[in-house]
Write a structure and sequence with these properties.
Elements lengths: L14 H9 L3 H23 L2 H18 L9 H19 L17 H4 L6 H18 L4 H12 L4 H8 L3 H23 L15 E3 L2 E4 L4
Antiparallel strand pairs: 1-2
Amino acid sequence: MSKGYTAAVGMPRTDEELVALAIAGDSDSFNELVGRWERQIFALAYRVIGREEDARDVCQETFLRAFRGIKKFKGQSKFSSWLYRIALNLCRDWLRRDRRSEVLVPLDIEAGTNASLSGNPPESAEDHAVRRDLRRVIAQAMSTLSEEQRATIVLKEFHGLTFQAIADLQGCPVSTVKTRVYHGLSILRHQLQQAGGRTSVLGNGRPPTAVMTRGDRKMVKIDR
């Protein structure tokens, strides 16, 4: 093990330590970075472009480019931010190159997870139908947003990035990020209100204008 990178037993290396080792030629350290961030990068791509197969391609290409360019990484931003930027650029290129109709943006990549494995109690058939309808309605609403609005809302609400972090990723002022979020939420509110009369969600006490969900947790209060 390289001097200066000896960690206490049970203490995982930081991203910065793994990057330094990867730059020095340690492929195992880069593989550890892949394992640490692959899920988040796939989730980002999946929510932005809305197709699982294409999201997996974007995720794979993101890490391939990162591997090829790791020696050029200067540490001026966090490694995760660097990965997010690569992935967002690839998503943007995909959307502009291969525009398709009816691309639905999935809200929850865990939608098919077995409840017994996740620790949550099994939901009833009625609850499952309500959740499915809610996801579908919000996904359709998300698909009406512009590329920039959709990516910004995904980064803010699903990945928990700050306005400043998103501005750094997208190369724009913080005020622009805030405008994209607020205008995007306004469009979602309008779309969800229009969809309200056409979905069974309203008949189950959970209007689609009230919440966006990640699993069982409240995500974004649209009516604010």
